[in-house]
Structures are given as structure tokens and as C-alpha cells.
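Q: I have 283 residues here and want to know how they pack in 3D. Can you give me a structure?
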Amino acid sequence: MARVLDFLAVGTITKDLLGNGKTTIGGTVTYAAATACNLGQRTGIIARADAQFDLSLLEQQGIRILRLPAAETTTFTNIYRDGRRLQYISAVAGSITPEDIPPDWLDAHIVHLGPLAQDLPAGVACAFSKALLGVTPQGWMRQWGADGLIHAVPWAHPEGILECADVLVYSIDDVAGDERLIRRYGSLVKTMVVTQGNRGCTVYRQGEHPHHFPAFAAEEVDPTGAGDVFCAAYLIHLAETGDPYASARFANCVASFSVEGLGISRVPTHEEVDERLRERTTV
């Protein structure tokens, strides 16, 4: 049987509230899927969202979406102050389980797990035994109170996820620069990439010295989702080349486009990335 999908993103599609009273579509799976689609992958999303939430922006790109039922769509407000992000959550759609995954989507070549609100159990990671499996773990590393303000918490049981994962990608801000946590997570997975915003990223491979890769120069407009774009690009290049270091430079380049526009409006094509790789230097 022919493979249905090249790239599958599993997680939460979000309704992001903007400061002008408008809303936009967001979430790890949104940014990851848009990236994969623009880079030529047959792309799918599994996510929960209410029936009224408009997903046409993704569907028009040719992304296949399995919309699981939800009473409401997970809703975030992001506020940036002095280079820091304050994030509030006001609705949660619910969890995705292994039983929600169509059998013919289990054969996807690349799978990107993108939880946002403690919404993916460990069993989902271990359902994809044939895939190159990448994880962005922010959703397992956050909690919130009655006011919805999100704060960081320790990742309770990373072993259950990472024993089935090939690549772990997260921001150094997710662990507040804690080298102890970085070493611990790196011991649990073959390849780990820690992103550092406009300072680039560092690749950790078990048994090897870490390698740092500078960012590409970019005029930042909106940094939201850049880490998710980076992860999708990294996984795609890794699947194509098998090179964990060249994939970091490629992903840095792709992410440099994404910050230059609002939302997913500036996710690049493969041709744009190739041109920037030829013409631009890193910062």
C-alpha cells in the first residue's frame, strides 16, 4: 500500500487572540504543517478544534486535516514585552489519543508531535514505530492558573515520550537555560536541538560534542511559531539527507523567513530557502 502522508503533525490547532481584537490560526501543528507543505511534503494534521473554527487557510494549501471534535478550540493570547513572551490560555480543546489516529496515517514518513496544553499522552509517541519522530515538548512543560497565565513546570515523565522519539527540539527559554535539564534530556534521545532565538541553535548527539549553528540575519516582525517552523524543517532535511548538522543550518534558514511576517504568512518555499542559503551569511 502506498504511503498516504510524507509529514504528519499531531497536536493542537489554536485560536490566537491578537491585540486588535482579531483572531488568527496558530499552534505548533499549524506552523509545522504549513512549513512541510511549502517544502513539498504531502502533509496532514490531527488536531481537536470546534466545528465552527475556520481551517480553510490550511485546507487551501492542500493540507489534509483530521479535525477531532471539541466543544471549543484551544485559545491563546501572546503578549511580547522587552523580548519576553507572556502567554495566557482561555480554552482547551482536549487530548488526542492513539485511538484517534487513522491506521493509514500511522505510516507517515515524518511525524511531528506538538502538544501545547498537556494534551498528548505518551502512547501517541509510541504509536508511530515506522516514522522519523520529532517532538517539540512545550505542551508538557507548562501549566496555568485561574487567570490563564502560563508558567513553566518540569516535564514530568520525558522518558515515556523520548524512548520512542528520534529528535527533540525545544528553546533554551523552555528550560530557563538550565544546563542540568539540557544534559538530562540529551541523555534520553539520540538527537536534541536547543534553539536560542537570534543566536541560532545547538545540536546535541549522544557520544559527540555539541555543535552550535548561528542564526541567519532577519528583520523580525513576529517570532511566534519560529521554533515549530524550525523543527519541521529540521526533520524534513534530516529525513532527506541523514545529516543532523546540515539540517540545523537548513532549519535556521527556514526559520529566518518565518519571523519576517505575521503568523504563517512568511513560511518559505524550498526555492526561497535554497536562494537564501546561497546568498546570505549567518549572523
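Q: Anything worth noting?
A: The helical segments are 28-38, 56-59, 122-125, 158-162, 179-186, 226-241, 246-258, 270-279. The two ends are 46 Å apart (CA to CA).
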